Amino acid sequence: MEKIYILDASGYLYRSYFAIKNMTNSQGESTNALFGFIRSVLKLFKDFEPEHFISVFDGPNNGKLRKELYPEYKAHRSAMPPDLLYQMQWAEKFCELMGIPSIKIPGVEADDTMGSIAKWAEHSGSTVYLCTSDKDMCQLVNERILILNTHKENLILGVNQVIENYGVKPTQIVDWLSMTGDASDNIPGLPGFGPKTASSLLQQYETLDYILAHPEAFSGKKLETILEKADDALLSRKLVLLNLDVDFAKDANFFKLKTPDFYNLKQFYGSMNFLTLSKELEQHKSYVAVEKIEEKVTYTLVDEENGLDELCLKLSKQTEICFDTETTSLKVLEAELVGIGFAITPKISWYVPVNGNLGFEKVIKKLKPLFENPQIGFYGHNVKYDIQILLNAEIKVANICFDTMIASYILNSHVRSHSLDQLSLEYFDKTKCSITDLIGKGKTEITMKEVEIQKVSDYCCEDVDYTCRLKEIFKQELETRKLKNLFQNLELPLIKVLANMERKGIYLDVNHLNLQGIKVNDQLKHLTEEIYQMAGAEFNLNSPKQLGEILFTKLQIKPPKKTATGLSTNVEVLEYLKKDYPIAGKILEYRSLEKLRSTYIESLPSDINPKTNRIHCTFNQLGAATGRLSCQNPNLQNIPTRTENGRQIREAFHPEKSGWSYLAADYSQIELRLLAHLSDDETMIQAFNNHEDIHAHTASNIFNIPLSEVTKDQRYSAKAVNFGIVYGQQAYGLSQELQISLSQAAEFIEMYFKKYNRVKDYMESCKEKARQTGKTLTITGRERVLPEIGSKNGMLRSAAERLAINTPLQGTAADLIKMAMLNIDKELQKKGHLGFMMLQIHDELIFEIPDFEIISLEPLVKNAMETVLKLKVPLIVDIAIGKNWKEC
């Protein structure tokens, strides 16, 4: 064998485990280490195309000989996390399915096995690549054994590179490690002899033996250490020296890569929810689908008048039709219609182009009566987009009966992707034709209008076919899991409401925004000069690395937090530092302003549609697992309101017409009211029913003072406790937010639960129900599956417990405002109001209305929101009216 690659499998898995966070399969089992491991191996294969390869794992009870020699060896290391242990076993399974030889020898560490294989391969005439980031392995480097560090852009270390990196030759690495020690393995070394000192001494004296034998060459602390700690250095040498006599199968054929078991590997990926890897596997040049029979489908291009007439006649007799539009853009108001696909049953579909023989007008004229027939239900995947595309063509879809994307979300809100490609792969093992296969990407990207019509037809027919198949599955599952009512009566009718809001849009006064931009740029300039003066140097304020060097090297500030990539300068760190170091506060101020400038002042004008002169956001029903709507392209939900600059940006949004105003309707403390209702806590219920200020009431309780004596600061602290409890905040988080001691924060929380004693019972019952059922429910029956609730990873389990408490509150609040939106929209339509719903921001609805409608719309909106559901406490809605968003 000419080359062999020896992989430090255990090292790769450990690295991935700590580098990648919060990945689980559908059973809630951690998959982060496995995913990182697989990704690393596949990249290595792609970059180097090895023929001989071995994956080396630590054996059970590894390090036995070293522990006998030195009981403290790795003694300080905590036990392997339980959710890493089973991922190690999965990694071995992956190697088996991938055709990768692997080895794990009882009692032996991976390093020793790797070293023994490397020396044997070298003597057999092979070039050896040790795939590891472990510096201990540098002791093996010579002309034929090299280190390949794939974590550093495939850095290859030969003899010269080891000398450059460590200042010593590979033959001196053992002595160098014996002097510096290794804290991670608990190897003592010589105290006070760091890497630079050790390198310098070995360059001068060659060996550790010489240094220990000639203490007279040293003085002071070094002499004292050499005399007193010589035995530690010699012991350290025995510990770091690799055992190169490990027994293994010395047969070149054993190390040769085998053909992967593609079929079972794909099943393995599926069980781990590695859908991207599964898709990549199907596209692999050597992929062979085992026993996969090509499915017979009938996809028809309809581009002649007779064919279209026959199709229209067939479709007109149906009660439900699946459809999909092909367009030139994802931006609804800018997109041109290219064609429409139809399906009635799986495996049979049709595509009607509008850029073919028939032409746009003829196709639209024939299809319009179908879509506008209220007796026919239309469905698709992301119908909100398609119905708006048809509106551009002056077709108003009368009846939407299903949406597979929304159904998928309701059934599995914890899953990130609900794309048709992902769902087809997951449910039917089908890798669909990718959109990039048709239109390309980047500079060479074209529009669907420019693609050959037959190719578009095949693509669209496949889309409607698999949408049709998914609908059959999801419809049954919604009924089985008792989610049909939520889907049918809330999420589905909301599609048209949101589509209407998106098309209405919001007006932005660009001139006002530009004036604000001038002010902000001026403030940024002054802040930058202030920070430079405080730092005593100029640097790139937007570079975390340069900022870290200024704070922690030049200014010698003690860093409170270190990350895997270096010293952190994130918000948490700067908030911690600002009370002692004013420069940290100034940087926070700079970052806040810079975000306002780049995210809003600079970007928002480019979001204005030139035809309507308004911004048209997208409201995403899949934005959060709790059921909350999110706002995208642009996101107007996050414009800050606590700073004057943020409020000034909101001032730039105002009604387009004179004589119009904004009406904002905001649920007051809705999650706390829901907490009172769900927990059945009498004290909290009484406070809300008496219309007391709940934060002042809480302050009165936790500080044990009369309500009339509560100060502003005490109310603020109580407010933090109230909302912190809802989001599962612990004493540490509360102490950081209020800048108080940990013990005081813990005391606040303890007092809170004493006064609201049913709340704690409720929270515990939420966690217990989730453990028993694996999910949590809102009042309206919305599910959130929590597979991590039983995870062996404490961090994942704790996060799931917080979600078990918060989701019923936040999810119910989300459902209430959606119900209110439906009711309000119905009333606006029925009474023919000119005013319209424009934005939804968390617990708030914003309307653009003519001034003469204020008197009728204010009570309509307030009543609809407050009476949407009967609770044990009143729902209160605060109404604000203004000539711009800031005034609301």
Question: What order do the helices and strands come in, and which of them pair?
Answer:
Blueprint: E1 3-8, H1 9-19, H2 32-48, E2 53-57, H3 64-69, H4 82-98, E3 102-104, H5 110-123, E4 127-131, E5 145-149, E6 155-157, H6 159-166, H7 173-180, H8 195-205, H9 208-213, H10 220-240, H11 262-271, H12 275-282, E7 298-301, H13 305-316, E8 320-327, E9 337-343, E10 348-353, H14 360-371, E11 377-380, H15 383-392, E12 400-403, H16 404-411, H17 420-428, H18 435-439, H19 453-480, H20 484-504, E13 506-507, H21 510-535, H22 544-554, E14 562-563, E15 566-567, H23 571-577, H24 582-601, E16 614-615, E17 618-620, E18 630-632, H25 644-651, E19 660-667, H26 670-679, H27 682-689, H28 694-702, H29 712-726, H30 731-738, H31 742-755, H32 757-773, E20 775-777, E21 783-785, H33 794-831, E22 836-841, E23 844-850, H34 854-866, E24 877-882
Parallel strand pairs: 1-2, 1-4, 2-3, 4-5, 7-10, 8-11, 11-12
Antiparallel strand pairs: 5-6, 8-9, 9-10, 13-16, 14-15, 17-18, 19-23, 19-24, 20-21, 22-23
